[in-house]
Write a structure and sequence with these properties.
alpha+beta; eight-stranded mixed beta sheet; 8 strands; globular; 4 helices
């Protein structure tokens, strides 16, 4: 089953399919050690990784396993980052949420707004019952984003990541359909 990558708008953001023009922004963002410090993989050092990332986004949508959308500011089209729903399982009506923003975009509420817009689309379009997310236990900002859009911390995965020899734990979050409040959080998608 193919998934159509949505185009969504909020008061400040536009969520859209990736284009080849996004590759340089992706490489700069994923190449930053500061942006990637809480990820389960090291920063990119090869520009070709951006091209493979874009190809993976297309494949994911074609195979029907999820969607990843670019996020840009509506006012000027500046690249903010991306948000995704992966591991979509229509039988279990579940998926996993993820996001990554360029460092200059942190602290403006963009992650919360983008996540909220994609969740609204997913609950309405994919008829989800559960969305899961994970955050490195050292990443308080990401934990706040998840909690703002309604996720509940459900547990800790101990020492689940080892990146460049550094071991870290992750918090597991869940959001159930019955707990979803589409009017809470960020500006509504239109």
């Amino acid at each position: 089953m193919t998934l159509t990558t949505p185009v969504l708008s909020t008061d400040r953001l536009r969520l859209r399919p990736f284009t080849e023009a996004d590759a340089d922004f992706l490489y700069a963002m994923h190449g930053s050690a500061h942006v990637m410090r809480y990820w389960d993989s090291p920063p990119w050092t090869d520009r070709a990784r951006a091209d493979r990332f874009l190809a993976m986004c297309r494949t994911m949508a074609e195979e029907g396993t999820g969607v990843r959308v670019a996020v840009e500011r509506a006012s000027d089209g500046v690249f903010v980052g991306w948000v995704c729903l992966v591991e979509w399982n229509p039988v279990y009506r579940s998926a996993s949420l993820g996001y990554c923003l360029a460092e200059a975009m942190w602290g403006h509420g963009y992650a919360t707004e983008a996540a909220h817009a994609l969740l609204r689309w997913a609950f309405d379009t994919l008829d989800l019952n559960r969305v899961q997310a994970e955050a490195d236990t050292r990443n308080a900002a990401s934990a706040r984003v998840l909690e703002k859009v309604g996720f509940v911390r459900e547990g800790t995965l101990r020492e689940d990541c080892v990146v460049d020899g550094e071991v870290s734990d992750s918090w597991v979050y869940g959001l159930l359909r019955r707990e979803w409040r589409p009017s809470d959080g960020a500006a509504p998608a239109r």
